[in-house]
Amino acid sequence: MTDHASPDSVGLVEQHTFHHEAALQLDSGRQLPGFELKYETYGSLNASRSNAILVCHALSGDHHAAGWHTADDKRPGWWDNCIGPGKPIDTDKFFVVACNNLGGCDGSTGPTSINPASGRMWGPDFPIVTVRDWVRSQALLADHLGIERFAAVAGGSLGGMQALQWAIEFPGRVRSALLIAAAPRLSAQNIAFNEVARKAIMSDPDFHEGRYAEHGVVPRRGLMLARMLGHITYLSDGLMRQKFGRELREGKLNFGFDVEFQIESYLRHQGETFVDRFDANTYLLMTKALDYFDPTAEYDGDLARALARAQARFLVVAFSSDWRFAPDRSREIVKALHTGGSAVSYASIDSPDGHDAFLLPNDHYFAVLRAFLNHLHAELEVST
What we know:
By secondary structure, the protein is an alpha/beta fold. It has helices at residues 131-145, 158-169, 188-202, 220-234, 237-243, 262-275, 280-292, 303-307, 327-340, 363-383, and strands spanning 16-20, 24-25, 31-32, 35-42, 52-56, 83-84, 89-90, 95-99, 152-156, 176-180, 313-319, 344-349. The two termini are 36 Å apart.
């Protein structure tokens, strides 16, 4: 891991807040009376404002994608291995924007914010937001930053879905879209996983119908279970076998229900640390946004028709051991893009890391990103 003083790190970074005063019309039919988006930027915007890349985060991510907030931070941003000087998303060439989505719990307007109409925390009253709502709010942030057209919109998993929606919603504002470990919409199995996670949270005695903050508690058990379930789906069976096997924490069976296997200990640790940094109502919102995402809904289920309006050049990346959004799901997107005549490159990366592979360094994966973005940068240099 690099530190903040390393030459390939973006170093210490500042957080910014975009304030939007006007109401935002949401897909649900409700309006959000103004909002804030927390964001960070890395690199420099060029004179023609053509080199900006929007990085969209996945379910539990935020705006802190690279660098360090303080020299004492224990870890950098969530995609620090990929963003920085000389890295695949090269901040010597590109101006990177990363924001915390609406409904988030790390600075953007969401359930933990104050509802101006009531003076109370939004909590469960915060409206359901969709991927398209996020994209529209991000477009307003782009306007604020003076970015008319992104060189690229990129993201993994739920972030890749946002990149896909960008290409459909604002075809003239996206030069290229990087869809990594993504799917055009969730399968029934994926919706089922999300429903179990939500049920775990909402069944927690401390949930209080989403008003747990007013009771001074957190639905820790439910949120922990939701994260543990999700985490299982982010890893491949092979990786879990390789990392944990049937290894026992104390080297022997105790014939009880306490933690005995190392995998049990690992999952509980993941769940417990997640509870300390994430809001339960936000988790409910994010999983619903995943469930609802379906760019074909207005096109009779025809993905090729939905993508026909896209003008971007696409890079679609899938990972061999990803069973949450398996390579077949990525190839659905590629096939639809081919049908519609869009320019698309596809890479299937051999990786044992399951769905989480999109967050991890991998020589082949990073070489694909680097080659695509270097080619894009060369085009920008010629056109300016």
